[in-house]
Each structure stands twice: as C-alpha cells, then as structure tokens.
Design goal:
The complex is a heterotetramer, with 2 copies of chain A and 2 copies of chain B. Chain A contains 24 helices and 25 strands. Chain A is an alpha/beta fold. Chain A has an 8-stranded mixed β-sheet with strand order 6-5-4-1-3-2-17-7, with helices on both faces. In chain A, helix 10 packs across helix 11 and helix 21 packs across helix 24. The relative contact order of chain A is 0.09. Chain B has a single domain, classed as Thiamin diphosphate (ThDP)-binding fold, Pyr/PP domains (Rossmann fold, 3-Layer(aba) Sandwich). Chain B is 31% helix and 15% strand. Chain B is built from 11 helices and 10 strands. In chain B, strands 2-1-3-4-8-7-10-9 form an 8-stranded mixed β-sheet, with helices on both faces. In chain B, a hairpin with a 5-residue loop joins strand 5 and strand 6. In chain B, helix 1 packs across helix 6 and helix 4 crosses helix 5. The N and C termini of chain B lie far apart (61 Å). Classes of the chains: A alpha/beta, B alpha/beta. Chains in contact: A-B, A-C, A-D, B-C, B-D, C-D. Chains A and C meet through helix 15, helix 16, strand 14, helix 17 and helix 20 of A and helix 15, helix 16, strand 14, helix 17 and helix 20 of C. Strand 18 of chain C pairs parallel with strand 2 of chain D. The complex binds thiamine diphosphate (2 copies), iron/sulfur cluster (2 copies) and magnesium ion (MG) (2 copies). One magnesium ion binds next to helix 3 and strand 5 of chain B.
Chain lengths: 660, 321, 660, 321
C-alpha cells in the first residue's frame, strides 16, 4: 500500500477556530487543483472540549480519510497529548514551545482512560508526563518536531497593525498553524493568502492581518527549517472542469432548492439542523430567467411574482415537523424535513399517515451514533432497518442512501421525484460522515437534473361527480391523479382510517383489500420503473475473489482501499446499494451468484444491509466487517481488513476499532 | 352564486350518538361557511382523531382527518404551503389539550391565520368516556368508575397563555350564536381559538344539555336559570382596539380573569381579540417578500421539460474552489 | 371436513346489548361443560353502527371461529340483511316478524357497496328489497326461519312485573334471542338461567325479569317449533379440572397482577385500554397469606403494610406512558404499558432509551389493523417488523407473541422475567384477535408461575467506591447487578448518551465498543438461556408434506384446520414461533430442513415472519397464505388454503378474503 | 451526619461554557440539598436533554439524564413507583416548553410532590442558539440570523394555567435567593415549578448577566438599576393560607397579573403557592389505601422460591364457568 497524498491534522478546543483553519487549509489546497477530503471530530459540547479536523489532500482523486497523520499542527497542549503518537515516522508536529512544561494531569478534558494509557507509555519510556515528554516519545519514533514561537510572531505582526491585545491576536493562532504547515511542504504562499481572502471576504481588515500572519509564518519556517521536511506539496494544473468544495449538509440544501422543495420544517438536532439553517439563510430563490422566453406563462408569473422562496419553519418537535411537512405535501408543495435518529423516532406515526393518504414527503435522515441520544456528534449507520420499518402496519415507502456528496445532491432531487411519482414518503439517509465532511467534488451538472411531479393535477379537476373527487380511485398502476388541496372543481377527503376512493372512512373488507393492494403495489411499480443505475453502483471487475457489499458513506473509503488492493494484486469488486427499498433483489442475486467471498461492510453492530440481503435474496453473507465505535471507517482499515480476509485470517465478524 | 347550507353537506354516513352535541357544532360550522359564502374547494377542514374529529367527513369542503393530537401541525403545514386557503381546525379536548397540548401551546406562538374549534365534552368520547384534560378534579361521570384523579385545565386561560390572538367560547346547542363566533373566528386575522361546550350524552352525565339549560339551578321564582350567558350582552369588550401595549395587556388580564367564571355562571362569546399582532404569514413575508406574492403552493418549480426553474448558479459560485 | 360443533351468531346495533347476549350464550354453554370460542366484530364507533358476535361451542376443544353460521339470532333488521345469507343450508334464523316490511334502503349504516350487492341478488331472485325478501332468499337456500313475537312476549313478562315501559322491556330483547336459540337446540334451560344470574349478579331484580324472559322464550319456541331443528346441543360431563371463560385483555391483566407488575401506564386506545381498566378496577391486590409462615420478614411486611397494589396511571400520551413506565423500571418496580399501533409508534424513542440504560420495561402491544389509524377495531398482524426495529440505532430487545389466551397469560409473566433478567425492554405482541376474543380455557396453573428478577439488588450496595456505584460494570455475562434508584450505599447515573460504568457520558471509542458489546451481547445470552419450549411450539408429525409456519393468533385456526386436514389424510405439521427475538434460528433451520412445502401463514400483507425466517435462516419460504382485510382467519379458510396448496393449485401468494 | 456541599459534587468533567448561568443553578441546587441534609441515595435528579440537562452528572445523588422533552414523565414514573424518593427535575426551556410542552401542561394536572427547575436562557443552547419558546417575538440574539419569528410564552402564566401548586422565579446569579427558592420548592407539598433566569453568554447577548444587573437601565442618579426585584421584599404574598376557594382564586389571579411584569422590573420569588390541593400520591392513596403504606417500590412480589406473592384466586373464581 503506497499512499501518494498528504494527511494533515489540526486540533484545538471547541470554539477556538479549528474549523476555520481546516477550511482555510482545504481551500488553499483545492485552489491549487488538489483533491481534498476533510473529516471533523468533535464532542457533543459547545465550548471547551477537544475537537480536531483531518484534511487529506492529493493530486489524485481521494474520497476518504486515513488513520495515518503526516503532519500535526497544534497550538495548545491537548492536541499534542491526544494526537502526537498518531503521527507516522518521518511525519511532522508543529507546536508552540511555550507549552513544553504543560502537564497531562492539567488537562481536565482528557478522559481518565486516555490519560492512564498515555501516562503508562510515558512512564515505560522513562519520560515526564508533559508536552516535552510526549514530544520526545514521538521524536524517538522518528517524528520531526517543529517548534514555532506563535505569540512572539503574532506580537510582531500586531505591532505593525497597532493591535496589542493578545487575545485578539491569538484568534489568528489557527491561521499561523496552517501557514506554518504549508511552509514546511513548500506550498505556494499565494494560494494560502487567496484562501484567506475568500474565507474572510466580508472583513478586509481581518484579511489584511491574517495575510501578514501567513507571511510571517512562512518567513520563520523557511528560515529555520527550509528543506528539513521531505514531502513537498505542489499545486497541479486545474483542468477545464471546475470543482466545488462542499459540505454534505449544504449539498443537500442546494439540491432541495433546485428540486423545488418549498416547505422545509425542522426541529434543531445535530447533525441535521445545519441544512435547514443553510436553507433559511437562502430562503429567497433566484428563478431561471430563460423561463420567460421559453414559456410565456411561466415568464409572466416570474415577472409578476418575483422570486421563488422556501418557507423554512422551526417546529416545536419532530412530530410537528413531519406532520407539517405532510400538510405541505397535501397542498401540492414539495415538502421535506431533516432530522437525525431521535427526531426520526418521533416521526414514525406521521410516516404511516403519509403512506396511508398517499402524500409525497421527503425525510432526510442524517444518521448519527445511536441508540438513544447515543453519540450525537459521532458516526454510525445504525438506522437502516428502522428506516425500512418505522411506523406500525404496512405502507409503501422508498428508502435511499447516498454514498458521497455528489450522490447526496442528485439523490435529494430523486427523493422528491420518487415521492411525487409514487405519492408516498421517501426517506433519504445521509450518514453523519457525509453530513459533516467537506470535500472537493466536480461541479454539479444542473442540466442533468429533471423534475418529475408524477400525476400531480394542475388546474381545475373536470371529472368530479357531484362536486366530489375520487382522489383514491383505482387505476391500473395503483397511482391516482393527485389534485392538491385547494384545487378547484371539487373536493375530497383524507383520513388515517382505511377509506374509499373519495377518502371517506370505510371498514368494508373488499375495499380494504383493494386499497392495500393499491398502496403496496406502488413499491412493485417503483421496482419496475426505477432504472438500475439509480439504485446500485458496481465497481471493479465483473468477477473477483472478494465482493464487498455496502451502502452509504463507506463508499469513499472502500473505493480508496480498492486502489491499494489492486496494487497488491487482490481482485475485489464492490456493490453499493443506494435504493434499499424497493430492493434491487434480482440484480443483487445476479451479482452475488458470481461472487466467491461476499463481505458485508457496514458502520453498525449487526450488519443491517447484510440482513436485508439475506432476507431478499436468501444468499448467506458470511463475512462481516463492521465498526460501531462512533468513528468512520478509514480506507486503511478497509484495506487491511480485506487483506486479512483474502489471507483467510479474518474472523467471520471483523470489528474495526480505529479512530480517536 | 350564493352557497346554500345543503351544498355543504355530504352523503357520508354520520355515526355520532343520538343527541350528541357534535351535531350542533357541525351545523354551526356549515352555517358559518354558507354565510361567508366560502369557496368549498378553497376551504379545508382539518381534524385530529376522536368522535368530533370525524366532522370533516360531513362537511363538503376539502377534509383532512389526521392523527390523534396532530391536527394543528398538519393544518399549519397546509396553511404555510398555501396561505390563500381558508383553514378551519376541529377536534376534541383530549386531542387538543391532552396528547396535543404541546402543539396547542406552540401553535399559539405562531399566530397563523386559522381558526381552531375544540369540541369540549370533558371526556375522551371515542375511547369510551375516560376523563379529558378539561374535566375538573373529583368529577365523576357515568363512564368513570372513580372520580377524576387529575385537575382540569381552563382551556381559555391556556390559550391566552399560549398567545392565541382570539379566544372565545361557544355552546353547541346555541347554534346561531356559535355560528356567529365561528364567522368571527374565521374573519379574525391571526390564530383564533374557540372552545365549545359540547354535551356528550353517552358518557358525560354531568355537563348535559339540561345542566347548561339550568337543571337544578333555579332562580327565586323556581324558574330554570341557564348556566351560560353572553359576554356581549354583559357589556364585556374583549377586543384590543389600538396597537397599544397597555391596552393589550389590560385586555389580556381582563380575559384571564373572565376565564375563571365557569359552572353556574359560564360566559359565552369573545374573551379576547387582538389583530395587532402580526400573523406568521406576515412575519415570513417580512423576511422574504416573495412569500406574499408567490407563496409555495403558487410557485412553478420546473420548466415544461422538467428542468428546474430555480437558478442556483450564485450559490454554486460561492462554493467554487 | 366434518364440523361437530355449533356456530351461533347474534347481531345488533352497537350499544344494544349484543355483547351481553353473546356473553350469556357463551357462559351458559360453558357452564354445560362445552368448549366455547367467541369472536366479536364492530366498527370504530360508539353507538349506532352494526356489530356482531359469533360464538362457537363444541364438546371437543375448539380454538377458532368458522365462516359458517349454523344459527343466526336477530332482533332488528340490519343483522338480517347483513348475515342472513351467511347461514348454511339447514341452518336457522330467529327473527322478529315485526321487521318483515323493513326495507334495505332504510338502513343508512349499511355501506353502499354491500347494499348494491344485496339489491342485485334480491332482484335476480325476483324478491323485494326488504326483510321478507332476504329471508325468502335464505329459505330457498334451505335455511329454516323462526319468527318470534319479541314485543308481545316481553309485554306479557312485563305485565307480571308491573313493568310497562317498552324501552325498558326491550333491553331484554337480546336475552330473549339467546333463550330462543337455546330452546331450538333443546339446551338445558336451567343452565341459561344460571348464566343470567352470574351475568347480572349485582342486580337481583334484573335477574328475575330476565329469568322470566328465558322461560317465556323457551315456552314459546317449544310450543311452536319443538323438534323442527335437527341439531341438539347437550351439556357434557365436566371433568374434575375447572375451566375459565376469559377474554384476552383480562387474561393479560391478571397475569400482570401475578407477575408483580406494580406500575401500569396507559393512554386510552382500542383494543388495549380494556386491560388497563381491568387493572384499575382491581388495583389493590390480595397477598398470599402463606407468605407469613414461610418467610417471617415477608409475613411481617404483609401484616404491617396490608395489601399490594398497582398504580395505574392514565398519561397524556404514549410517549409519557412509556417513559413513565421506564421511570418505574428505574425505581425497581416491574412496570409496563399497553397500547396498540399508533401508540406504539410514539414509543420508539423511549424504547431505545430503556435499551441504552438497561432498564426492564414491558410493552404489551395489541396489534390491530393498520397502517395509521387504519381499522381500529379490526384484526391484523402488521406490527411484527416494526416491533423488531422500532427506535433508531441498535439496542437489545426481546419480542414475543402469544398464540392463544393461555399463552398470553404465561407469556405476560415471562415478559417481565425476561425484561429483568436481561435488563432491557420486552415487547409482548397480543393481536387484536386475542385481545377481544372470549374462550373457555383450562384454569391457569398459578403454581407453574415463577418470578425471576435477574440481578436485581435488594438492600444496600456494599461495593460502592467513593459513594459511586458501577451500575454498568462489565461482567462475563454482560448483565450487571442492578440496584434500583433509591438503593442505599451509593449513587450512580443514567443517560441516553453513551456512558461509562458509572453512567456518566463518555465518547471514548474503546468504552463505546465495550458497552455496545455488553448490551447487544445480552440477546445472545438470552438465545442461549431461554429454553426452546418457551420459544417455539411444534405441532403434528415430525415429518410432513406441508409445514405451516406462523405466529400469534392464527394458532387456533391452524390447529382446528389441522384436525380436518388429518381426516382428509393430508400430512401437515406446524411451527409456531413465539419468541421472535432472539430468534430460534437453529431450531427453525432444523425443522425447515426436514420440510417439503413450507407455508408462511400470516395476517398481514407481506408475510413479515416469513421475511424474518429468510433473513435468519436463508431458507426461502416460497408459499404464503396471507390475509389483510381486517378480519381474522377462520379455520375453514386455512383448511381450504392448505388443501389447495396440497393439490398444487394455489398461487404462491394466496390471499384469504372471508369475513364481514 | 450533616451533608457538606462537597459531598454533593462529582468528579464528572463539567463542559459548560465559561460564564454560563448553569453554574449558578448547579451551586444553588447543591446548597439546597446540603442545607436540607437530604440522603443522596434517596434523592434523584432527573433531566431532559440540553446544556442544562447535563446537570445531574455534576450532582452526587442518583442522576437520570433522560430524553429531550421527557424529563417530566420519566420523573413522574420514578416518583409514582417510589413516592418516598426526593425527586428534583431540571431542564432547559426548549426541553420543557418546546418539545416538552405537552408534558408540562399535563404534569401540572397531576400535582405529584416534586420540584421542576427550568433553566430559562431563551435559547436552545446545545444545538447552537436557536430561539426557545420563552424568547419574545422580534428579539434578536447573536445566534439568530434574523429576529425571532415566534411569540414567546410567559412560563409562569403557563404553569399557573396548567395547575402547578407552587410557581416561582429565581435568577442564577442570585445563588442564595435561588437556593432558598429551591428549598421551598422541595418542601412544598405538590408539584413546584421554578423558572430560573439563566444567562447564556455564548448565544444570548440580550439577557446577559449585565442586563439583569441593570446595564443601560440607570436611575436618575445614573446608577445601575437592577432589572430584578424580590417579591418578598415588595410585600407580595403568593401563599394560599386556607383551604378556601375564594382565597385560592384570588391568589391565582394575583399571580397571573404579577407574571406579566418582565423586563425592566422582573419579580423574583414565589408567585403562588397552594398546599390545599391534594397531591397525586394522596389521590392514589384515597383510591387504594395500601399505596401509602406499601408503595410499589416497597412491595415484595415473590416468595423466596420465586412463586408469586399475589393471590389471584378470587379473580379467577369470577372467571370460572
Ligand atoms: C396515538 C393515538 N393514541 C390513542 C388513540 C386512541 N384515541 C382515539 S380517539 C381518542 C380520544 C378522543 O377524545 P377527544 O379528543 O376528547 O375527542 P372526542 O371523542 O371526545 O370527541 C383516543 C385516545 C389514537 N387514535 N392515537
Ligand atoms: C428528539 C430530539 N430532538 C432534538 C434533539 C436535539 N437537541 C438537543 S438539546 C436541544 C435543545 C436544548 O435547548 P434547551 O432545552 O433550552 O436547553 P439548553 O441547551 O438551552 O440548556 C435539542 C433540540 C434531541 N436531543 N432529541
Ligand atoms: S360518545 Fe359522546 S361525543 Fe362521541 S358521538 Fe357519542 S355522544 Fe358524541
Ligand atoms: S451554550 Fe449557553 S447554555 Fe450552553 S453551556 Fe454554553 S453558555 Fe451555557
Ligand atoms: Mg372529548
Ligand atoms: Mg434553553
């Protein structure tokens, strides 16, 4: 396994600018045409706990994080204690020599267990339990240590701007750490400065000072350490195609705007609310000017009515969030709500109501560490089975799960299309590892996006009898024309009870059978209609020794690992299931029939997809690779796991445990 | 074309018990809608689950019979998506203030322009007469094996505390007066709450029609003294006339004090009305003016060929590396 | 197929005494040593809609209803219109000749579809659309019609008691119909009178009048129709063993008292609340006097403190119901809540919390017709998958489903034992068909009931360190000693977040893995410990042509059908899964390995258990018999279905449709 | 043995922001428990989810950190099962009156003998500063991109409307006074509600410590005028002294009127207290006397050999055919 990339990490106290620095780092790298993948880890806390950000950059495409750290940038002691020993031999640690004497027992936020382990290692090595000791331990393992006198340098810059407040100056510690890092790998200083300008766009004064900080850091590092670090990071020629640097939440929000979602309800919850807040911040929507030319009616409407808009509503709880969104669906508006596990648990009853009344609604489920409150800011794919079965009784629902940020974008649009086409709820799972990861991806091709509103009736109904519309009339496909509430020409009813075609309650057994067949039949219809390329991805050779079977955010790490495995001559292919319901049974059966060793790879305890595969195909998937410690799978872990499996050395249930 | 009462009736079979107070409320709603000459296909009656919540099936407008306790958020979603619809919400007291109490309180904070009618029979009718949240502590109906173990809440005070900008009480056997209150509630700009005393002859043998008519409550001449009276006739004025903090506070306080009257001397009518609080629709429009001219339900979202009408180029530009 | 039993039906308007009459009928039959099975069908309505009760009695054991009606007792027109054509040839209809001219179109509660069908049949036969017409149609099909002048007879009885109010007298219409029925089959008049005395125990005056009504009816029928109806119903010698006549709800309530459930929370819902109301009506609990002798301490407590009691609390919703019950579990009290689908949907989040904090709690899930409000008073087994997966994330839970009233009793006790032994929520599914069915069953053997409180710690904790108890300490079994809140000797914490052994929040990945393994491992432990005879029932020969695979209330109908199938020489066996989680995988694999045709029999659309069997065993169950029209399966339906399958004539998914 | 304050502290790491008002409340709770010399192992602190709801981990009694919005029913279950435990509930304003509003209202109707302390910071702290139900319409904190779109509720009035028999307000930086209120609330026979003004320096830059201390609110001498005052010092008496309907109603009305004061002149102290309403425990005991002598948690349910202690013979007899 040969990595040809650069894995950089920065850490610090929650609220001290760790995010910003990682962003600047990533943007500077992306501006140089590099591929970037960022991963953030933080506690369920507002201020004070440790958080860290790992950014991996490469000239080739990368889609995941690795466990190895090539360079660790720090400006306080906790990050040193926690991460110094993760840095690889020949890697680098940048730190503030003022911290040298800080002792491990002075950091209350480090868990007792972690502290004990470190103390043990230091004692064994005969080193003092302080920053000096831990850095010495790292040095003995071959790590290069780069002290940089942050405060001194900052004061110098400050002096030039007449800024003497140390606490103000220290807000730039993070940028200095970034610049020092880039200086060590001789990255283009201007790209860093450009990134800063973008980051602090609205505040020219801030930009100016930060740019000066960058210069100072470069100067110091070049003078002191020029050539001492072997790895060099060079920008690459940017191809014609433009890249975006995006985060999962925003990607989904953007797609909702485009898909025509015009009512979004939410109750705050990690990691879902960022999406709603993005939408709220962009609630008025620009409309395509070409509309005017192409379709005079639309053009007139645009001219007359101005912009589009999305009503983003913070509700009192998730029961209200989902039922309000269903209300929007009733009114003919594409509506959705976004939540994560605890909120989704409260939506079960509402989902069933939407299924019963054939109302389109999209629930974006940001899956995080469960059960219960669980690990609110950590990773897991633990909600798949629940998404499939949430709600009492039987009703149709589609469940789709995205594997990366690009898929999350297009899948969001599809979720709305499916929900209107099949007039039923759609659950779109985006796991935490996508929601909060930042990466460079190719620009979205807006022209590829098509809106399909299914049998939505626009304009007055003409076939009402006695003013009554047979909303739930039987049709060959099982889908009935859907005039929204407010449509002229008649009226109809809706009820959570079993109902007749008008929507009135009836307990008649014959009608019951018809209605159940109508509703549940829509899943068979979807199974027939939805093309396979929206449902499954297949990677690698048609025949292979090992077939990986997975879903969701593990995609990136698997693809990255597959490249290394290929170099090692291990023949692996990979089926990524994206539409879990209706399940692509025949396709999967076909693939698995050709497989030798099938390996279920999932970030949960029980291998939920694997269970679904067994249920649908009766193919026993006997090798599992699972992880449930709250940390996402790295490409290295998957690489090692598959290697072990290929050597016949893996237990049937291999549990991955990396991550801090 | 004027709407006739009969135009608002459906052929759906009504299975309420004989003598149920729900009938009076149903009539009043239909009379109000007819009087206002609403367009049935631009009107939506939303309900929860309970005897009372079957009402939409008997009214020939759009009807949405939802989940137990969730009528308000469903209705709110409909109204938010299409603020041009007339939305009336109906439901039981258990539906609204038991399982639905959280929505009740928080919907008051929003002040969407809708009307909410609660059928207040002090019992859970459809599940056979358990005590509802409006039944007083220690009261015993024929459906209860033992006296009520919970305190009852005062729905009017709760509504005022929750921020409803129109708070009134009607009586299901005073259909004309009730009809007037419904018309007022629909016309009110903001969220109107209307509590309706609704005898449930099957389970509640305390607050019966006869009780309200004055049974066992005689004046000095031995004549039945009805237990209800009309606020309007008592010189009470619950309306906030000017957008004035002081007047507002006084009227709220007056309404709260008035809401304590219950039992032998129960006021009917408008306790409080304030149209100077902006509606949620107005608040949304102040954030995004297009909400008013181009609300969600009116928006086109796609060209004829299915390509999206939204233009996200600017946002994409922000994300470019 | 030869039925050797008597299937009697009575119908009437909801609230007009149909239930009482069926009860009297059943009790009179049971008092004669007969086996009784009763099934009630009613609308989700308070007063006015049609309801009917079918009571099947036999000298042999019976466990299900049949579709055939031997005798229909009516006292108003709607029952005649709805059920006259269900009566078999040579069967009987008892009716009031005053109804003769009542027209079909005068009954608004009959659904338009039903009316149209009847009108069609009458027209085809050239008969008038009234009672006379429909009875004539029945007569032409060989049914005996027995008019009885109810009002006349009632008035005569009334006169003797000085009762002239017709409406008061008419309250006895139902009893008169029962008596007339029994008279026709020459059943012992005294047994009917005894049953009345039991029924109206508290009201001697009522008993007296009703007894007179019975006498009058017998006299009239004997005089007029003696010997005209071929079938005779005779009491049988009652064996030494006593039988009970019970209903599902009460059975469960009784078992909760016995099991030591001392906190029951509920929010009213059909068909669950009857159970809570029963408990509330018997909230003070007699204690076993022998306690005093056997264990002086207990004896003293009893003497000192008086009776036991159960706090039954009506909550504001089901979220409160389940979380309150969990609160009771925290306090060391056996606690439970009972609900049906819509309420259960609201409990998903609470269940996960109990799983996370290892709190014992029992949820009795009365499964009714879904989805959403669905068919609130009708039957379905649609919640199995949801029960298995309700709640986000992964946590242990046990799911068990009872097949009949006897099982419901013992399973209730087991549910509490499991929940304390494995310190986790237990969902006990009792489907509507059990909840509301009445039957004679052998008296419960209270001595067979054992209470197992698992590692509950009674008395002060002695191993607290610094006053802190390691509530979630690691143990070899994964189960930790459980001192309830309030235990002296220390304190500990609980949280929905991932936690350390003290119950404090921690996001440490190593602790996380340990805790997940601890919790989830308890399901493996349960799988090892719970004996197979509590988990599966196996009926019939070890090897058979057809293996039926089912769960829940279909048990009775399947067993009854198997007897007829045996007579026909069709070799059938039957596996009834009672503990769905942990699933008895190896056992089921073993059984299915020996099976030729495996048939999944379920009262739902998709064959939920069948899916679980495929998932766990990878055995494809390719033949389904399902029913989802809201009516329970009859033994006759199952008989015919299996017969069809044995002849190779059944579609792969056979949908049963009987029932009104 | 007297309990020391330090006995009530845990070693669990406290991760609240520096300067958070939660610290003051935590101290006051610990001081109150120490003063009352409670037995920590007979005391349970129950909370929901939010910054404030982490409190139990810092208090060395039994602690139950539950689900968002569900602290009240969890606590009720514990108290019902073991009425001899001292149960104190803590939680955020979002937790209690947003998602938890339904339980808030309906718990008032029960009047279990517990204390509920709400950390009222007008924001959702743990999810980064969204407006909570107590924030007034139009208010804008630094965490909000736009002014608050919902009306705020008055928690005291809501509590009174819901039937709480003790309603009070404290301030987290007046720790001693707050401690006294907590002691009163715990001692109160019935369900006590205590709203505590809790500055959240991270997200709420309007109701800060400085704001309450009088920033921008000067008297004629230019001195800071604190925005809070003590009811006790103003001659206000919220206590119902006699079991008298009239006095009760008057005191309720007085409390409602007093609850309108907020902002520049914000009362702290006991608004209302009435010990003449029977507690839920008493109501249960009046139905089944053994509940008092032998509450659920004290009951033995099995003999030593596991056979049940309950004797259901009589009930079985009723079911015999
Ligand atoms: C989640 C849920 N829980 C319980 C029920 C059962 N249920 C149906 S109606 C009802 C109460 C009805 O009382 P109310 O709202 O006062 O209406 P009323 O029947 O008195 O008009 C209940 C508890 C339900 N449908 N859904
Ligand atoms: C069902 C559910 N929805 C949402 C959340 C996310 N959540 C955690 S804390 C919180 C709000 C906290 O606000 P508040 O109760 O006022 O407490 P504070 O943090 O201000 O002390 C929310 C919405 C959750 N944990 N569970
Ligand atoms: S139970 Fe009561 S509320 Fe329900 S329909 Fe009958 S009378 Fe009306
Ligand atoms: S966010 Fe606010 S409430 Fe939460 S800990 Fe920080 S200061 Fe306190
Ligand atoms: Mg009611
Ligand atoms: Mg708060």
């Amino acid at each position: 396994m040969k990595r040809d990339d650069f894995s950089w990490m920065i850490g610090g106290v929650q609220g001290s600018g760790v995010d910003t620095s990682a962003n600047v780092f990533a943007k500077a790298a992306a501006a140089g045409g590099l591929s970037v993948f960022g991963k953030r880890e933080y506690y369920s806390n507002i201020k004070g706990e440790h958080s860290y950000f790992q950014v991996r950059v490469s000239k080739d495409t990368i889609r995941s994080h690795v466990d190895t750290v090539d360079m660790l940038a720090t400006f306080e002691e906790e990050t040193i204690f926690r991460h110094a020993l993760e840095v690889r031999a020949e890697g680098a640690i940048i730190y503030d020599p003022d911290q040298d004497t800080k002792r491990l027992d002075q950091v209350p936020t480090i868990e007792a267990d972690v502290r004990a382990t470190l103390n043990g290692e230091l004692a064994k090595a005969g080193l003092s339990p302080d920053v000096r000791g831990i850095l010495e331990l790292a040095r003995r393992r071959g790590v290069h240590i780069y002290p940089i006198p942050y405060n001194e340098l900052l004061k110098e810059v400050g002096a030039r701007f007449g800024e003497t407040s140390l606490s103000t100056l220290q807000r730039m510690l993070n940028v200095m750490a970034v610049a020092a890092s880039f200086a060590l790998v001789s990255y283009d200083e201007n790209l860093v400065k450009e990134a800063l300008k973008k980051q602090f766009r609205a505040k020219p004064k801030v930009v100016e000072m930060n740019v000066a900080v960058v210069a100072a850091a470069y100067e110091y590092m070049n003078q002191k350490y020029a050539g001492s670090f072997a790895y060099k990071l060079a920008p690459v020629k940017v191809s014609g195609e433009t890249n975006l640097f995006v985060r999962g939440n925003s990607t989904v929000a953007l797609a909702k705007q485009l898909a025509g979602c015009r009512l979004q309800t939410y109750y705050p919850i990690t990691p879902a609310s960022d999406e709603s807040e993005f939408l709220e911040g962009h609630a008025e929507i620009e409309l395509d000017g070409s509309a005017a030319m192409e379709n005079p009616q639309v053009g007139e409407a645009v001219a007359l009515k101005g912009k589009g808009n999305i009503a983003v509503v913070q509700s009192e709880d998730e029961i209200a969030a989902v039922t309000m969104a269903i209300g929007g669906g009733f009114a003919g508006v594409r509506s959705s709500t976004s939540t994560s596990g605890p909120g989704f648990s409260l939506m079960a009853e509402g989902l069933g109501y939407a299924g019963m009344n054939e109302v389109p609604v999209v629930v974006t489920l940001y899956s995080r560490g469960g059960p219960s409150t669980g690990l609110p800011t950590r990773h897991e794919q633990g909600d798949l089975r629940f998404a499939l079965h949430a709600g009492h009784g039987e009703f149709p629902r589609l469940v789709l799960a995205s594997g990366d940020l690009t898929e999350a974008f297009y899948d969001t649009v599809r979720a709305f299309n499916y929900s209107e086409r099949y007039q039923t709820p759609v659950i779109h799972i985006v796991d935490k590892a996508l929601a909060n990861s930042d990466a460079t991806i190719p620009k979205f091709d807006v022209n590829k996006v098509k809106i399909d509103r299914g049998l939505l009736v626009k304009g007055p109904v003409t076939d009402a009898v006695n003013g009554e519309i047979r909303r739930f009339q039987m049709t060959p496909s099982g889908v009935s024309p859907r005039p929204p509430l407010g449509t002229k020409g008649g009226v109809y009813w809706n009820t959570g009870d079993e109902h007749d075609p008008l929507g009135h309650i009836t307990e008649d057994p014959t009608n019951r059978d018809m209605m159940m067949d109508k509703r549940m039949g829509k899943i068979d219809l979807a199974d027939k209609e939805i093309p396979m390329d929206e449902r499954v991805n297949f990677f690698g050779p048609a025949a292979a020794d090992i077939t990986l079977l997975s879903w969701g955010s593990t995609k990136g790490a698997i693809l990255d690992a597959m490249e290394w495995l290929k170099e090692d001559g291990i023949l692996v292919n990979f089926v990524q299931v994206r539409l879990i319901n209706p399940f692509p049974t025949e396709y999967i059966k076909g693939v698995l029939a050709k497989s030798k060793t099938i390996v279920g790879v999932e970030m949960n305890y029980s291998g939920q997809l694997t269970g679904i595969v067994r249920e649908r195909t009766c193919v026993p998937v006997e090798q599992l690779v699972v992880k449930y410690n709250g940390r996402p799978m790295s490409s290295e872990e998957i690489y090692s796991a598959v290697k072990l499996i290929s050597q016949g050395k893996a237990p049937k249930r291999l549990v991955l445990k990396n991550g801090a | 074309m004027a709407l006739k009462l009969s135009d608002l009736k459906t052929t759906a079979h009504n299975d309420w018990c004989p003598g149920c107070g729900d009938f009076g409320i149903l009539n009043a709603v239909q009379m109000a809608l007819a009087e206002m000459n609403v367009d049935p296909s631009r009107t939506v009656v939303v309900s929860g689950v309970g005897c009372s919540s079957k009402a939409p099936h008997f009214i020939k407008t759009y009807g949405v019979h939802t989940l137990h306790g969730r009528a308000l958020p469903f209705a709110s979603g409909i109204k938010l998506a299409n603020p041009n619809l007339e939305v009336v919400v109906e439901g039981g007291d258990g539906d609204g203030m038991g399982i639905g109490a959280g929505h009740f309180v928080n919907s008051g904070r929003r002040n969407l322009d809708m009307l909410y009618i609660v059928h207040d029979n002090e019992v859970y009718g459809l599940t056979k007469g358990q005590a509802s949240p409006t039944m007083k502590l220690g009261m015993k109906t024929k459906s209860l094996p033992l006296p009520n173990i919970n305190q009852g809440i005062n729905p009017l005070m709760l509504a005022i505390a929750s921020g409803y900008t129109f708070v009134a009480r009607g009586y299901s056997y005073d259909v004309r007066h009730l009809k007037d209150l419904i018309v007022k509630g629909i016309r009110h700009k903001g969220f109107a709450f209307l509590d309706v005393l609704q005898p449930c002859p099957t389970y509640n043998d305390v607050q019966t029609k006869e009780y309200w008519a004055g049974e066992g409550h005689l004046d000095t001449d031995g004549k039945l003294q009805p237990r209800t009276y009309k606020l309007e006739e008592s010189g009470y004025d619950g309306v906030v006339h000017n957008p004035d903090e002081d007047e507002m506070e006084k009227k709220v306080q007056q309404a709260v004090l008035k809401s304590f009257e219950f039992g032998d001397h129960t006021p009917l009518g408008v306790f409080y009305q304030n149209e100077h609080v902006p509606t949620y629709e107005e608040r949304l429009a102040s954030r995004m003016p297009s909400y008013k001219t181009n609300p969600p339900a009116d928006q086109e979202i796609a060209h004829a060929d299915g390509t999206p009408l939204a233009n996200i180029d600017k946002l994409l530009e922000d994300m470019r590396v």
